[in-house]
Amino acid sequence: MFTGIVEELGEIVAIEHLGDASRFQVRGPVVTEGAKHGDSIAVNGVCLTVVDIIEDAEGTRFSADVMAETLNRSGLGALDIGSRVNLERPMALGGRLGGHIVQGHVDGTGAIVERKLSEHWEIVKISLPAELSRYVVEKGSITVDGISLTVVDAGPDYFTVSLIPTTLALTTLGVKQAGDPVNLEVDVLAKYVERLLGRDNGTQDKEATS
């Protein structure tokens, strides 16, 4: 489980295409500290499994295999060598939940629609797949490229977020422009509530017709 609090901006340093998968090498000295084979690291909000830890004169990086399903359903397939990525290690048991509960399972992708500068923050409008709109509410939580953010305004096919200077400086949202894709993960609690309400309604319907 992750929290959506990005620990560092990493960099894609190599991509090996393997037919139905790709192997990424990602530089990230903070998240690789103490990491080992089999550990999880979120890359732009996608939970990946560490294959190898590699150290050289340019620093420490890790490799991870990304299957075709993940490449097709997330923005990882659009990354190139040199792309900056948001990195986060899983939350330690007993650690502080600084953002919200993030699984690292991308529900869909959106795109930056527009950015509006203000004196102390920036409003960013992001497109939203119609099937995810029911999970996004004003003042609720959503994960964008692995960043836990609060929804300012929720529309049928978009939402907006307000970004403070720290978020702009320390994450990929500081440099992404209109048209750039972003990974989206909605609040898992909303999906559980929907599931439970659906079961209740199903039970009531059966009782009413019996």
Automatic annotation (TrEMBL):
Lumazine-binding repeats lie at residues 1-100, 101-197. Residues 1-100, 101-197 form the Lumazine-binding domain. It holds the Pfam family Lum_binding. SUPFAM superfamilies: Riboflavin synthase domain-like. It is an enzyme of class 2 (transferase). Pathway: Cofactor biosynthesis; riboflavin biosynthesis; riboflavin from 2-hydroxy-3-oxobutyl phosphate and 5-amino-6-(D-ribitylamino)uracil: step 2/2. Keywords: Repeat, Riboflavin biosynthesis, Transferase. It catalyses: 2 6,7-dimethyl-8-(1-D-ribityl)lumazine + H(+) = 5-amino-6-(D-ribitylamino)uracil + riboflavin. It comes from the Bacteria. The keyword DNA repair does not apply. The keyword Transferase applies. Coiled coil: none annotated. Its EC number is 2.5.1.9. One of its GO terms (molecular function) is riboflavin synthase activity. PANTHER family: RIBOFLAVIN SYNTHASE, RIBOFLAVIN SYNTHASE ALPHA CHAIN. Catalyzes the dismutation of two molecules of 6,7-dimethyl-8-ribityllumazine, resulting in the formation of riboflavin and 5-amino-6-(D-ribitylamino)uracil. This is Riboflavin synthase.
